[in-house]
Amino acid sequence: MADSVIRFSEPDVTDREVEAASRALLSGWITTGEECLALEAELSEFVGVEHVVAVSSCTAALEIAVAHLDLPRGSRIGVPTWTFVSTAMAAIHRGLVPVLLDVDPDTLNVSPESLAAALDADGGLDAVVAVHFAGVAVSESVHRLCADAGVPLIEDAAHALGTSDFRGRVGGVGTAGCCYSFYATKNLTSAEGGAIATDDAALADFARSFRLHGLSKDAWARYRPDAKTLGYDVVGDGLKANLPDVLAAVARVQLQRFEDMQARRREIVTGYRNLLADAPVRFVPGEADPHSADHLAVVILPEGTDREALQSELQSQGIGTSVHFRPLHTFEWFGAQGYGPGPTGVPVATAHTERALSLPLHPKLSDDDVSRVCESLCAAIGAADPA
């Protein structure tokens, strides 16, 4: 085993984040307050939208966006099968039925053809959640299909803070909300956290209430020294999903450092692509996307490769890897609940289920680390017998 461990993901945290967290801890107010408000304003300017509401996770942001649609129970919501379970769970928790859509073989984003067929099928779709997988924006045609059908589109941008598309930075312009993650593995982290971005003032107001049990005023509005009133009302149902100031303070420093961290990610991804140009793997997407947030470095292994054995071999050499994702249609529970594929099925996702591998990617990787990963990956593929 190698002397040093190459982690799949490692947060890039400096003394600046530690100092920010300490400042918030010693401020006399550690839950949602001034730090959170400042983060929301700074993210709004960064993304280029009118409103950002910070919440406890991307999952919470998705639940808020889905709840704001106010769809009747049993409504059908299109979700790519190639995603984390929370994308669909946000709909299921509101009594909606996820319709699992296939993905594009190059990007593993939702397939426009699969979406079009589901929109045109009996029952159609009442909403869509599109995932910007690995930091690559979904196709403009996905937006157009939803707009033409009059179906709201929610953006799952857990991987896509900093991603750009035909609208500029991905941030909810023209959609029913854009949901970010600040989880430990993300490009910007506060350990846990997320946000919803939008130009829709009604959605933003709804999110501020829904993230705290549907209350009309949060604790900061009620208890700060200059508060005009201590009273509050319940204006709807909601979650406990606010972001504490301690975490918001960390996220603010991460945002200040974001462009530098993104530049290093791009260097690492470019290094992988150059060093693996002649290897028997295919990158997702096939060609580098200059507008991607470079959240993941995903390769498609040769057909017949025993991925689990390959991962174990790399792990024995101190190299961490991961899988993004196990498609939703392969989970027993989803099938038992009757949550299945749309009319085209999910042949592309099925064909890639055992072949996608995520390589280490975080700003703390050195060029030597990248070289070692590539050498070890190629050697492991060469030594592996087809399953």
Characterize the structure shown:
By secondary structure, the protein is an alpha/beta fold. It has 2 domains: 241 residues, Aspartate Aminotransferase, domain 2, CATH 3.40.640.10; 126 residues, Aspartate Aminotransferase, domain 1. Helices cover 38% and strands 12% of the residues. The longest helix is centred in the last third of the chain and has 31 residues. The protein is globular, with a radius of gyration of 21 Å. 47% of the residues are buried.
The count of β-strands is 12
Give, in spatial order, the strands making up the sheet with the most strands: 1-9-8-5-4-2-3
**Mean model confidence by pLDDT:** 95
Report helical residue fraction.
Answer: 25-40%
SSE order, one letter for each helix or strand: HHEHEHEHEHEEEEEHHHEEHHHEH
Short description:
By secondary structure, the protein is of the alpha/beta class.
Q: Topology of this structure?
A:
Layout: H1 15-25, H2 34-47, E1 51-55, H3 58-69, E2 76-80, H4 85-92, E3 97-101, H5 112-120, E4 127-131, H6 140-149, E5 153-156, E6 164-165, E7 168-169, E8 178-181, E9 194-198, H7 201-210, H8 219-223, H9 245-275, E10 282-284, E11 297-300, H10 307-316, H11 332-336, H12 347-352, E12 356-359, H13 367-383
Parallel strand pairs: 2-3, 2-4, 4-5, 5-8
Antiparallel strand pairs: 1-9, 6-7, 8-9, 10-11, 11-12
